[in-house]
Amino acid sequence: MTLHLPRRRLVHGALAAAAAATAASLTPGARAQSTNYPARPVKLVVPFPAGGATDLTARLLAGKLAEAWGQQVIVENKPGASGMIGGEQVARAPADGHTLLATITTHIQNPALFAKIPYDALKDFEPISQICLSYLVLAVKPDFPARDLREFIAAVKAAPGRHTFGSFGTGSSSHIVGERFARQQGLDMTHVPYKGAAPLVTDLLGGQVSSSWIDVSTATQHIAAGKLRPIVVTGPRRAPMLPAVPTLGELGYPGYEPLGWVGLFAPAGTPRPLIEKISRDVMRVVKLPEVQARLNEQTLVPVGDSPESFAATLRQDMALWAKIVSDAGIKPQ
Length: 333
What we know:
By secondary structure, this protein is an alpha/beta fold.
C-alpha cells in the first residue's frame, strides 16, 4: 500500500520548521490560544480497531480529559496499514490541538518495516506524553515440555520445524521479537501471524500454535487461571504484574529492553504552550487513582511523562527497534 502525504510542514527544512514553531509558541496569540483551549470538541484518533488495549486506554483518557476541559473528546477509530491511515490523518490535520493521535510502538517501528510511509514519524508530530507501558511475555501451554527459557530452547531444537510461534500480525512487536529470538538462537520455528490478540490467544490456548510473544495484559488472566505458562519477559526490568518471571536480559540475552507503549501526539507545528497544557492535563489524569487502577487492571504500567521525556524515548526506541528488526532479518515491504 502506498499512501501520499505532502510534506508541507517540512518544505523549508527541519531547522526552519523548528525555528518557526519556536517563534509561534512565544507569541501572545499562541499563549492566548492555550488559555482558551479547547475551543470546541477534540478529536482523538486511534489508528486501531475498537475494543483493543489502545482503544480502551484512549477512551479512558478521553473521558477524563473531557471532564477536565468541559468539552467533548471524541475517539475516532481509523484502523489499517499498521496505524499509518490514522497517523496520516493526524499529520494532515490543523496544528491547533483539536486533532490528536493516540497510538502505540508501531509508530516508530514502521520506518524499519515499510519502504514508503506517508509521513515522518518524528518530524511530522509533536509528542505530548507517554501514557503507559506494556511488556511482552513468551507464553506456552502447561503441557509444553519446558518450564524455563533453557528448556524452551532445548525443546524447540530437539524438534526442528515442528514448533510455531504466533504473533498479533506481520510486523508487530510480537512478530519482530519472536523472529529475532528464533534467528539468534538458531531455532527452526514457523511464524504464524494473526489479525490481533483475540484469535491468537484462542489458538494458543487450543494448541494450534506452540508459543507466542504476547502482551502481558493479554496473557495475565490465562496465566493466573493456569491455562498458560510464562517463560520470560521483555523489558529492562521484571514486569510488576509477573514479578517471578525473569527478563531476557537477566538470562543473558540483551537487546530486548524496549517496552511497548501507548502515547499521545499532536500534528507538527502545534504551538508549544498548547502542547505543554495538554501534557500537564494528561499527566494529572494519569495520576488519578481511578485511572491508575483501570490501567493496572489491564496490566499496563501508568507513566504520564513530559513532552521532552517522551521525545527522548521516541528517538531511543526508534534506533533500538530498527536494530531489532534488522537482527530479525525482516526486510522493509
